[in-house]
Specification:
The structure holds 2 protein chains of 2 kinds. By secondary structure, chain A is mostly beta strands. Chain A contains no helices and 11 strands. In chain A, strands 2, 4, 5, 6, 9, 10 and 11 form a 7-stranded mixed β-sheet that branches. A 4-stranded antiparallel β-sheet of chain A has the order 1-3-8-7, with no helix packed on it. By secondary structure, chain B is mainly beta. In chain B, 0% of the residues lie in helices and 49% in strands. Chain B contains no helices and 9 strands. In chain B, strand 5 and strand 6 form a beta hairpin. Chain B starts with 8 loop residues before the first strand and ends with a strand. The chains are: A mainly beta, B mainly beta. Chains A and B meet through strand 4, strand 5, strand 9 and strand 10 of A and strand 4 and strand 8 of B.
Chain lengths: 114, 111
């Protein structure tokens, strides 16, 4: 068990560019979550997958954001036409039923939009 | 989900027991209380969860009184490495799997 990993750890991009982040959950975990965290705030829920199905999306997830989890393993989060307000830490977490409240978080990807 | 309220910050000396109280006046029957810890530049880490009365694990204790309108996380004999932000969350056992974090309590342990 190597924990949840995220790649890249840091990303600097110019406004208007597209970025994609990857999350590899703990291998046997069937649930995967994306959160966003800005400085001084707690993480905010973005979306959640059970296996390959995206079951819930926050209204924070504008149409510029898309997430996938093909084959129910790793997941990607893409942000199109980035804006400065997208600058944040993007956290991925995974869990296994029935302890879905015990979510294991990755180290996050810090996005800076210039 | 219940809205949780907790102190913004707390200071404690090393070796002391720290109690962080969280209020959740509108907690629903299906809601559980969960606590997470977060160090700088890391993702949050699950500490403990409870529904009612007292739960203890190797890291902390959680006490939730009978009316469930508040809860107290107890950290025994804190060390400098316990300096972190602690989040109190309500979690619904009835369908939604998202965690709703507030701003948390920044605990500073002083030597």
């Amino acid at each position: 068990d190597t924990g949840v990993s995220q790649d890249p750890r840091h990303k600097i991009t110019k406004r208007g560019q597209n970025v994609t982040f990857r999350c590899d959950p703990i291998s046997e975990h069937n649930r995967l979550y994306w959160y966003r965290q800005t400085l001084g705030q707690g993480p905010e829920f973005l979306t959640y997958f059970q296996n390959e199905a995206q079951l819930e999306k926050s209204r924070l997830l504008s149409d510029r954001f898309s997430a996938e989890r093909p084959k129910g393993s790793f997941s990607t989060l893409e942000i199109q036409r980035t804006e400065q307000g997208d600058s944040a830490m993007y956290l991925c977490a995974s869990s296994l039923a029935p302890r879905q409240y015990e979510q294991y978080f990755g180290p996050g990807t810090r996005l800076t939009v210039t | 989900l219940a809205k949780t309220t907790q102190p913004i910050s707390m200071d404690s000396y090393e070796g002391q027991e720290v109690n962080i109280t969280c209020s959740h006046n509108n907690i629903a029957t299906n809601d559980y209380i969960t606590w997470y810890q977060q160090f700088p530049s890391q993702g949050p880490r699950f500490i403990i969860q409870g529904y009612k009365t007292k739960v203890t694990n190797e890291v902390a204790s959680l006490f939730i009184p009978a009316d469930r309108k508040s809860s107290t996380l107890s950290l025994p004999r804190v060390s400098l490495s316990d300096t972190a932000v602690y989040y109190c969350l309500s979690y619904s056992g009835a369908g939604s799997y998202q965690l709703t974090f507030g701003k948390g309590t920044k605990l500073s342990v002083i030597p």
